[in-house]
Specification:
227 residues, mainly alpha, 2 domains, Vps53, Vps53_N, Vps53 N-terminal domain-containing protein
């Protein structure tokens, strides 16, 4: 009799675990189905401020169904989530490029929509943020690369202080206008400085080589060389 009772208890425990798992799965499925429709609507309306949290939740819920993608309905939902991620990445990238590459780029100030978009980017695939930052940092240094190019007189070593003056001025302007738009952990100002240093390190040897060539040319003009 004890064995029978023990056996029944084990069966009940197993049934309870299965029931709990089934209820949890149904809850996750409900969140997933409703969340996909919500994300599609919010993405179309560019309501980035309302996307970040549900996007993270949907991504976490989706991990519970990784072993069930052979089920057509689950695979369809998984594909829709991936599509939403791709659409958001492309859309936000376009929004940034339109904001910073257009006629009003110089006067562009802190934008709440793009600030919210940054939070969405943080919840997307890992490569989305680095790609966006790479483009943005290069854009920030575009003026520097033009003004202090090796072909410009202001690029000579005796005017190297102009480089750091430009950096200081640009960082102050950037922090005033756009610093609050990016999450602190993106370290955008630090990235600008790092890229500035890398670009300067690459440019200075070119300038030194060019100056050396000029000195040699002046000291030994072609006309003075023996035939």
């Amino acid at each position: 009799m004890v064995r029978e009772i023990t056996h029944d208890i084990k069966q009940l425990d197993c049934a309870k675990r299965n029931l709990t798992l089934a209820i949890t799965t149904l809850k996750h499925l409900h969140i997933l189905v409703g969340g996909v429709d919500t994300l599609k609507s919010l993405t179309e309306k560019r309501q980035y401020g309302e996307i970040a949290l549900p996007l993270q939740a949907i991504s976490e819920v989706m991990t519970h169904f990784e072993n069930y993608t052979d089920i057509p309905q689950i695979k369809s939902l998984s594909d829709q989530v991936k599509s939403i991620h791709q659409d958001l990445a492309q859309q936000i990238t376009r929004d940034f490029k339109e904001a910073f590459s257009g006629a009003n780029a110089k006067s562009f100030i802190h934008n709440k929509q793009l600030a919210s978009a940054c939070l969405v980017v943080s919840a997307l695939e890992p490569k989305v943020k680095p790609d966006l930052l790479k483009w943005f940092i290069n854009l920030q240094l575009q003026e520097y690369m033009h003004l202090l190019n090796e072909t410009e007189d202001t690029a000579w070593l005796d005017k190297i202080d102009k480089r750091y003056a430009w950096l200081k001025r640009h960082l102050i302007e950037f922090e005033d206008r756009l610093g609050g738009m990016f999450p602190r952990n993106w370290e955008v100002s630090e990235r600008i400085v790092l890229q500035f240093c890398n670009a300067t390190r690459e440019e200075l040897p070119k300038i030194m080589t060019k100056r050396k060539s000029r000195r040699i040319s002046r000291r030994y003009p072609r006309d003075a060389l023996p035939a």
